[in-house]
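I am still learning, so would you mind making up any protein sequence you like and the tokens describing how it folds?
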Amino acid sequence: MNIKIFTVTCLLTLGLYNAARAQETNGEPVYPRHEVTIGLGGGLSTLNYKIENGTHTNGFGGQAGLGYMFFFSKHWGLGTGIDINLFTAKSKLDNGVGGSYNATVINGLLPNDNFVFNYNLSNYEEKQKAWYLSIPLMLQFQTAGKNKFFIAAGGKIAFPVSSTYKADSYTMQTNGVFPDGRTYDDLPQYGFGQFDKSSDGDLDLDLAYFASLEAGVKWQLCKKNSLYTGIYLDYGLNNVYKKSEKEFVEYTGNMDVVTNSSVQSKINGVESVDKMTPLALGIKIKYAFGLGEIKKKAKPQEEQPKVTEQKPTEPVDNGAAEKARQEEAARQKALADEAAKKAEADRLAAQQEAARKAKADSLAQQEAAKKTQPEKTTKPQQSASDIAIIEEPIEDYNLAQISPEEYQKKKLDEKIVLLKKYPETKFYIYGHTCDLGGDEVNERVGLRRAEKAKAYLISKGIDSKRIIGMASKRDTEPVVPNTSEENRKKNRRVQLVIKK
């Protein structure tokens, strides 16, 4: 079964690798080619086994290590490294578990020194701890964007570094039955009797092979460095248990008794454990350092700069030629961008001028028509020049200014005289900004400028009912292109618009 799982894992890893190579594209990378990681993880990390005459409890541990990942595309990478892994477990034997076997007393109590040694134990609990040094091989996929989801699959080979067991405070009862029928159960100096003991020692474990999986989120901290957070699974594929010929409780022949590990010994000639596999499942965090220059993909150029002929006797410097080509391409792009920006500014200025002329012509025609018609009411008629003054923008606001200052108040006072001249006139107030700042900030600044202008008009005697609306236009209706600070001051304005 383990061989099948290992084979499937290898085939899956190979398939993912070939699929990744098939997705590679031409052009320069847009990500670090190399990544070095420092990782730390923890959770369930146990030696999994079934023990005769007792119970097994999973343990907790962890892992730490260094890793290296090579990215052959912005989504796919192949990694390796070195990790130190800790696995723990605990076994508890049933009370009264014991054994019996033939033993020998070197300093014999009787002329015949062969006898039957019997033992049983109570309250025996043993903890196992194993350290492994592992080398992974992982294929990683990650999504695009600043913060990425990732998944990595592959395998590990792990070498045992240290494996130990320890049992504290248990009770042992022993006796010896000799051929003449005599039984000795109270001679502690010869290893017979009741003892309160503790024991510890080394375990002998084999290499471990794992199918491994990691998944989580890769957080971009800066241009090249990242933080991985997620979960990991290391599933043991083989049996690391080595059989032992030792008895659980050994009579050494020198009238002494030694207790071996309950998971790597025999009781009444039967192995207490026949299979042991490591297993780890937990949370992992890794800090990643990106290495290598981050470059942008080369864009196709319609016209490539001509290559200067090299003298036959002089070697061609490919690096210098490529650098010159890139600099020339960047210069041509900058010139094209500048020309496009100037054309757009000229177009916007012409559009604004045409709109102004059309408005002025319309007002002049209305004024001429009014002069030729007799007055129908006693209400004062609005002249085109007065309307133009009322609707003339109040500009020259500083970048963060919302309240009118001396210049703006003077302009508002001019409009207040005319608004009082035409008490039936109703109007809107609009606040405008330049292109500096985001939409949300400009929306708020434009509205606040309109509100402060409204408050000033009301304070000077203008009926608030005449103000039928306010709004922020942000930087959507510039009067001139935002190409200089002088132009931006003209665009940072408040404007009153007469209701038609």
Notes: The first strand starts at residue 34 and ends at 49. The chain has six helices and 20 strands.
